[in-house]
Amino acid sequence: MFGHSPKSNWNDNPDGTIRSVSEAVEIAKACGVDIPDVAAFFMDELGLLDANTTARGPKVTKPAGGIVVLEDLLNKFGQVPFILRRDILRSDEAIVAVIAHEMHELNGLIPLLREGQLTIEQFNGHTSATNPGNLHYEAWDIADELVEEMRRKDNDS
Amino acid sequence: MIPELVEMYETGAVTAHHLAAQCLQMLDPAEPELVLAQLPDDILAAIEDFADGYDPKGMKTNYGVIPAQDQVIAATKWIRKKDATLARSN
Description:
Chain A is mainly α and 157 residues long. Chain A has helices at 21-30, 92-115, 120-127, 135-156; strands at 39-43, 55-56, 61-63, 80-84. In chain A, 41% of the residues lie in helices and 10% in strands. Chain B has helices spanning 2-11, 16-26, 33-36, 41-52, 69-89, and one strand at 59-61. Strand 3 (61-63) of chain A pairs antiparallel with strand 1 (59-61) of chain B, so a sheet runs across the interface.
């Protein structure tokens, strides 16, 4: 096990439905995930994400002590791109959990990035899987809560 | 693989900075053209930006491999040589 991870085992959609990326974004929004306009989502067409990585934002590389700003995360269209692992799209629970996780980290980082004083070490500290209490840890806790809420609603209906 | 990564950049799935770092760490310093000749000019410019900020004493990244100094130097030399050749031909 490598650091903090979700507690829930996500169930595939019972009818076998595989969502598109745009459907996934709408499902996440409908479940209360706050997706800023600057975020954009793409499927991992090349299989770049390994079995331990459900999604990934932009790679950032800086000299030690270098400042990370929002522009470092933007693609050519001015968006922060996130790649989703293909199998996530088989499960609405996974979709909500993974997008909620990534958006909690992004929404937490945006004001810090805009201040222009966030070092690469601090940036990594917020998203590290081995730094208890950081944005990454909070993000999986929130993801777990949203999946539990989805299950409660399914049981009630 | 390089054309597919460039396609990801063109669709917005990766940033120029991300692709520049990824291409640099794939590059053979003895034959940089195998990677670099497949890249559009804006990614070559991003590689030059990356090289300008490169500190051989210590680089940090949020994930993945950090390009080695010899890869960065080989890429910079190749791009400058290409630019010089283009300038002479114009």
